[in-house]
Design a protein that fits this description.
Number of domains: 1
Order of helices and strands: HHEEHEEEEEE
Strand content: 35-45%
Radius of gyration: 19 Å
Number of strands: 8
Structural class: alpha+beta
Shape: elongated
CATH class: Alpha Beta
Length: 173
């Protein structure tokens, strides 16, 4: 192997390692998001998004920017703290420089439901949803730039719209 070939191999491996590290960082971001959602840590949630993030969480409506997201998370916080369980799985992530896209499956295991002014606890109900996301590398870390969530089972609440295309600052590796 020549020096030139060795340098090319090292560059290719370095690039590949950088993409793999980015994928793992995005997985950690999304897992942390779901954990913060489950634990109702709204401040942590907000920090996971870019300043200009576009978020559409089904019946909660379209939100643009961190100010509107803060209002959304405040409203979610006022709704209480259900004892639901969440399982996030099946990530498909594609990284292209400082931008990435991802698709995830979320299972929510619900156990508390409002009924005639009270809360009824029932064990067993669940639903499955899909996240379609765009991510951007900003300020030395990956953040959500766009997020769409739709239920897909047992009843669908409609096709998930494609995330809004976003463009960000440069990220090397």
């Amino acid at each position: 192997m020549t020096e030139t070939e060795l340098a090319q191999l090292v560059a290719a491996l370095s690039d590949r390692l950088g993409r793999l590290e980015d994928v793992e960082a995005i997985k950690k971001l999304h897992r942390s998001y779901v954990r913060s959602l489950a634990d109702r840590e709204w401040t942590d949630l907000l920090d996971s998004f870019t300043e200009d993030a576009v978020v559409d969480l089904s019946e909660r409506g379209l939100r643009r920017g961190r100010a509107e997201l803060a209002e959304l998370f405040d409203a979610m916080g006022e709704a209480g703290h259900p004892h639901d369980g969440y399982v996030l799985s099946s990530p498909i992530i594609d990284v292209d420089g400082d931008e990435a896209t991802g698709s995830w499956t979320l299972h929510r295991h619900r156990c508390e439901f409002p009924a005639m002014g009270a809360t009824v606890r029932v064990f067993g109900p669940w639903w499955e949803g899909r996240y379609e996301c765009s991510y951007r590398y900003v300020g030395g870390r990956w953040r959500f730039a766009a997020m769409t969530f739709r239920l897909v089972a047992p009843d669908s609440d409609g096709e998930a719209a494609a995330p809004t295309p976003v463009h960000g600052a440069s990220h090397a590796g």
